[in-house]
Amino acid sequence: MKRKYIMLFLLPFSLFLLSTQSQGAEGEAEEAAMGFIGAETCQECHEDTYASYARSIHSRKVIKGPAAQNACETCHGAGAEHVEKGGGRDVAIFSFEDDVDPEARSAKCLSCHRQNTDMDSWEIGAHSRNEVSCDSCHDLHADTSQRPSEPEVCFECHQSVRIEVNKRSHHPIIEGKVSCSSCHQPHGSLTEGGLKTAGPQELCYECHADKRGPYIYDHPPVEEDCMICHTPHGSRHAKLMKEKVPNICQDCHDWQRHPGTPYDNEAGFAGSGPSNRFFARSCLNCHATIHGGNTFENHRFTR
Amino acid sequence: MKKRSILLATTALFILPVGGAFGAGDAGMSGSVELGARLAADEDDGAKFMEYRDLESGVIGNFMYNYYRDALFFDVEAAGIGLDDQYYRLEGGLYNTLKFWLFYDEIPHNLSFDARTFYSGVGGGDLNTARNPADESTWRTFDYTIDTEQFGGGAEFLQGSPYFVRFNVSQENKEGVRPLGSGSFSGVVEMPEPVDHTTNNVSLAGGYRSDTISYSISGMYSSFDNDNNALEWDNPFIGITEHNSLAQDSDYGKFGADFTWHQLPMMSTLRLRGTYTTLSSDFHVSELGASIPAGLNSLTFDGDVTTARFNAALFSHPTDSLETKVFFEYFDRDNDSTVIEYTGGGNDIHLYEYDRYNLGFDVGYDLVADTTLGGGYTFEEVDRTNRHDAESNSDHEFFVNVKNKSLDFLTAKVEYTYLNRDTDEDFDLAGVTPLDAEYIVLFVDRFDAASKSKHELEFAVEVYPFRALDFGASYTYVNNDYDDAILGRTEDSGHELYVDAMWRAAKFLSLGGFAGYERYESDSNHYNYRAGFQGQTANPLVDDGNPDSFRWSQFDEEDYWTLGLTAKMPLMRDRLVLSFLAQYQESDGESDFTTEGATPLESIDEFEDYYIATFEARASYAFTEAWALNLGYLFEKSNYDDRQYEGYDLSPGGTYLSGAYADHDYDAHVGYVTLKYSF
Question: Which of A70, B84, B155, B636 would staple B54 via disulfide (CB 3.0–4.6 Å)?
């Protein structure tokens, strides 16, 4: 039965062998280095910008970056015409302004960073396809690390997430213990939601290994998708639940006796008919092993 | 200060002279040391305020160091040294050749302070009644907290070639107690479950990369160990010792292969990925301590779950104005675990398996006037074993969007998505009559897999009238209509409106703000009955003549809004920086009922109602280029009202609680001062 999976894994390597046949198509002649004026000329007008570049990792000659090539002109293009025309914003020079094609801006970065180990899905990813370029998140002239400051940079676009992570129940994102990139691959992913892992369950179990099972008694939604009951960033409801307990449980479990019993205002501690199926943690007061049961006798997740 | 913290901090400080030894030639070094004190006061001593952070009074310190020389680089970061949420990271290597990293992180998770119990042995796997359950004044006090400690490291070898190898090792330890509810119709007990988990992970990946091709294979192994696989506890209601199963030890393995081919014709990129995982957990019935049910077919459980997943996507850019993506995913979950059966318990239906595949495409086309038209379609099918209410479902999802950025100062987007889900049931109800409880399954549709139609509409606009001002707003409406549901959730809908703005008003003032409003509604139908008892039937569509069986419905509505404002003021040529944050959020829910029963049902007004108000101010004064003084103040106040916790009682009838999650409110002030030296 598992042979079909072996075939699936062989497929990529077959394609690789095919691809090596077309490697000969590479090797187009490089453009002649015409019109380069050197960084010192740029510095004469762009003193502050050059200073920030000089402090950045891009200025270090030892890396295969701008300093090892044509400095400023590696990314901004040859500057002779820009100088001849008296300079000015976007005058015969490539700039990383917002009105410049994001794909072209990212292409400049990818000319060196294409081989980074996490760039495989860049074109397929949501950021690239929604005109988010590398410099939308990375400060190309940053003093030290060019890693974006998370989660602030992410919140600039993901408004709903900023709201969610501040809710009463949340993952420790604003506390700095979980970053956006702990779960998401900002450079693109084959997984929905841009997750780092092949599926959502794999991701959740990285931290919540005690929930992964296997169980004698499965709770099917748990095995399909944690996100059926939980929401990842933040929630009004405890335990990152999408809906309050017991309501979310009763939306599926309508059986005789207590699953189908209404629990109204009177079922609280202060009501006329307090019920331990409602107050405090409600269903979870008894059904604690809701992610799966491991008693040999079926106790419906109560043991 | 913890001994381990001192060790880590000392190790970090040793980096300085090591770095200094290289400090010649084409080298650079920078960093900072920050030391200060914090004073905190919380009138309510609320665990919620300290849920994931250590904000106790005491000494605080941070440290950062960055060094490079030629291709060598070395970075160290230490935050919250000595605190319960301390963090250390060390990273270094040689550019284009080698990179390595080590980390140590502590994450507190404070669930509830000052919980109460009559048991002894809190934190262990054996809870004995040591105090009188009927006399709360004798109960002992403890905290529900879980401390997580993560540490590990890894390295990536590039060797200046297109080939790479990367490995990671890490360990996570969780220690503490969390609430566990258990019981039966005789009575319910909430008690401290011991958490003493260790997870070890190791992963290895290697591959090849070029501008056109990349491929890699990877493997991972993870072992989970729980020091307490069962909890033994005295049941005060029936006077016996009971046993609860806790998380069992397990082993997880993953093998994956990735392939990417760039620069194909029509500017295409092909991505392929396959993963195969195994998850196992073996244990003997004696490990759980519970009595062995009669007729048990196996004394051991060999848990064995495997999954296989294959993804493929082809992205193309055939013309300047057209981009396309086609994709496919296949996922299969096989459960070959031991089928546990015993007299009166046929459990083969509890091992869950399913497979799912989806395929689809999406297209984006640039029209005239900076307008982009997009659209796409996805088909998904899921086949399940041992889930008879949703044996399979087929989804058809379509979306269309239009984006316009013809105006220099505005970008607008509108998107509509429609999903149709058709679900098939597979019940075998031969011999089952309306007088049997299981007859009800004919009428229950579970929202996670039930047939439904979904509509989603989204508007988004970004406005930037001048360089110093950015403004964004978005609105989303989602509606799920579970067309065939007689019992269960029948409809839910949500409205989400968000705005944010950033205004760099002057060189000495930046203002920011965000606001959000959310509304969520859900309707559900239910049936109160006890099949076969005094003529009651499990058919909600037929009046069985018994007033104790009746239909009822519930309507939940939740409103949430928040407002946040930030200000940053660099003054005195950036020597003094003032920053402020004020944020308020409020949640207001309500649940209404209608019933065909004789007794009216009373609405719940206190339905996750809460507010959180936060104010934070910080001043940083750099009195020399190297030395800076930081002053900060944080105020946070929260109040929570919910009918399930109002009038909290540790021992209401038939129940012994422990106070888990009952300390919701807090009113906290935190002030701190630090001196920072930068080099």
Answer: B84
Q: Spell B48-86 as b/e; 16+ CB within 10 A means b.
A: bbbbbbbbeeeebbbbbbbbbbebbbbbbbbbbbbbbbb
Q: List helix spans (H) across B306-453.
A: none
In B, minimum Cα distance to A114 occurs at: B211
Contact A120 B496 (CB under 8 A): no
Which residue in B536, B527, B526 sits closest to B434, CA to CA? B536
The reported pLDDT for the residue numbered B16 is: 52
**Tens-place pLDDT, residues A182-209:** 999 999 999 999 999 988 999 999 999 9
**B323·A295 Cβ contact <8 A:** no
H or E segment to which residue B35 belongs? strand B27-42
A160 token code pair: 């709903």
pTM over 0.95: no
Q: Among candidates B169, B258, B254, B179, which has minimal Cα distance to A203?
A: B254
Residue A104, H or E segment: helix A102-113
| Chain centroid offset of residue B536 CA | 42
Query: Which residue on chain A is closest to B537 by alpha carbon?
Result: A256
Those residues with Cβ within 8 angstroms of residue A86's Cβ, 6 or more apart along the chain or in another chain: none
Q: Is A36 on the interface with B (CB under 8 A)?
A: no
Task: Determine the Cα–Cα distance for residues B273 and B217; give it in Å rounded to an integer.
Answer: 10
Residues 6+ apart with CB under 8 A from B665: B44, B46, B48, B638, B639, B640
For the cut 80, the answer to whether the pLDDT of residue A10 exceeds it is no
Report the sign of the C-alpha dihedral through residues B226, B230, B234, B236, in that order.
positive
In whole angstroms, how far apart are CA A276 and each of B182, B191, B231, B527, B644?
11, 15, 22, 20, 10
Strand partners, B190: B181
Chain A contact for B471 (CB, 8 A cutoff): no
Side-chain-side CA neighbours of residue A278 (13 Å): 23
Residue B433, number of CB atoms within 10 A of its CB: 13
Size of chain B in residues: 679
With residues binned 3-state (H G I as helix, E B as strand, rest as coil), the percentages for chain A, rounded to 5, are 40, 5, 55
Q: Do A252 and B271 touch (CB under 8 A)?
A: no
Judging contacts by C-beta atoms under 8 Å, the chain A residues touching residue B448 are 221, 224-225, 228, 252
Q: B452-485, pLDDT tens digit by residue? A: 999 999 999 999 988 899 999 999 999 999 989 9
Residues of A in contact with B464 (CB under 8 A): 98
A274 contact B CB<8A: yes
pLDDT at A263 over 60: yes
B256 touches chain A (CB under 8 A): yes
Q: B543: how many CB neighbours lie within 10 A of its CB?
A: 12
- Separation CA B533–CA B530 (nearest Å): 6
Structure tokens at A80: 């002779």
B507-555 tens-digit pLDDT: 899 999 999 999 999 999 999 999 989 999 999 999 999 999 999 999 9
Residue B43 pLDDT: 75
Complex prediction ipTM: 0.94
